[in-house]
Amino acid sequence: MSSPPHPSRPPPPARPVAIAGCGAHVPARVLTNRDLERMVETSHEWIVERTGMRERRIAADHEATSDLALEAARKALQSARLAPADVGMIAVATITPDHPFPNTACLVQSRLGARHAFCVGLEAACSGFLYGLEMARRLVETGAVPNALVIGAEKMSAILDWKDRSTCVLFGDGAGAAVLKPAPAGRRGILSTVLGSDGSLADLLYLPAGGSRRPASAATVAAGEHYLRMRGREVFRHAVTHMAQAARTALHRAGLGIQDIRWVIPHQANLRIIAAIGERLGCPADRFIINVERYGNTSAASIGLALDEAVRDGRIRDGDLVLMVAFGAGFTWGASVLEWIQPT
Ligand code: ACO
Q: With a 6 A CB cut-off, is 241 part of the ligand 1 pocket?
């Protein structure tokens, strides 16, 4: 029989944790810039020049965020060779949950059959996937859970005012997922993560009604207060500053320079934001994973979606050092550096 740990004994050294598999899912319907020209006063040229976006995916009326999350989760579990019944925790990062409660992770759990997992919802907007990865990593690292399924999923189309050209052209629907496990012996996995928030700027990007501050009513609906509101120009400025700074800090903590990084996966908010970050970091454009032209800004889904695409098409390879960086409503931001370990 083993004796209980001595109270003064130091905790065991943290074990490295790695992404052991990933997956993604987008709805079938494509909404192009030309389609948007028929809905609001805009043009394909304006959208491409200001954002780099050409099309985005839009979920069907009957599809909810958990439906997108479920498909991404199934693919991630398959790639990590993990059975649903063996999943230790599920985190779903989203600002478009199926319902205010129960949390969307519980809905995914039940349909996956992951009956031993505990489930948390996480609201950090576009930074949600990185927030989820870091919180899950710490639980796997300490042995509190054997593994974790982290999903970023959004049905942004459900909270957009389709008459407001300044926001409706920017967002899309989708889901990205990753499984975290202890890294194989001798491998490093996630090397460093930095997370930050600034709630004093919350009103630059928010959804006014439908919460406890302003419960939904006929008046809030009539005023369109159940739709996302954003002061784009201000958000743009903060996004560039915080993403560049978070990336630098994460690199510093990992003991690396930008020249060591093979791939940068930025939150896909706007091609100009991505270019500005590249400039600030001194990182050439061909080292960025970019798919904003096809999916728009999918908020919490964006990094997982881009990661999965680049892993599946062979751009990200075993041993590559990858920097992920995000910024979103709150404000929230984060950056993470990892050594990619190809699932076998
Ligand atoms: N089509 C045509 N014209 C438009 C459109 C449109 N879809 N939208 C706005 N305009 C007009 C404006 O009315 C304005 O006209 P005006 O000069 O006559 O007033 C002009 O274009 C310029 O508008 P700006 O808002 O200054 O345009 P900007 O170059 O800043 O681009 C954008 C706007 C794309 C929203 C940009 O500011 C941006 O990407 N912001 C950051 C978004 C972001 O990063 N979000 C991250 C988090 S998202 C999350 O957390 C859920």
A: no
The residues facing 155 across adjacent strands are: 173
267 catalytically annotated: yes
Say what the pTM is.
0.95
Compute the distance between CA of residue 98 and CA of residue 103 in angstroms, rounded to an integer. 8
* β-bridge partners, 29: 58
DSSP string, 78-110: HHHT--GGG--EEEEE-SS-SSSSS-HHHHHHH
For CA atoms 282, 285, 288, 294, the dihedral sign is: positive
Task: Note the pLDDT of residue 95.
Answer: 98
Phi then psi for residue 44, to 5 deg, are -55, -45
3-class secondary-structure state, position 64? coil
269 ligand 1 Cβ < 6 A = yes
- How many CB atoms within 10 Å of residue 275? 16
Q: Per residue in 198-230, pLDDT tens?
A: 999 999 999 999 999 999 999 999 999 999 999
Contact 266, 277 (CB under 8 A): yes
232 lines ligand 1 (CB under 6 A): yes
List the beta strands (DSSP E) in the chain. 17-25, 29-32, 55-58, 89-93, 118-122, 148-155, 173-182, 190-197, 205-206, 229-230, 263-266, 321-328, 332-339
Report residue 6's pLDDT band, with 50, 70 and 90 as the boundaries: low
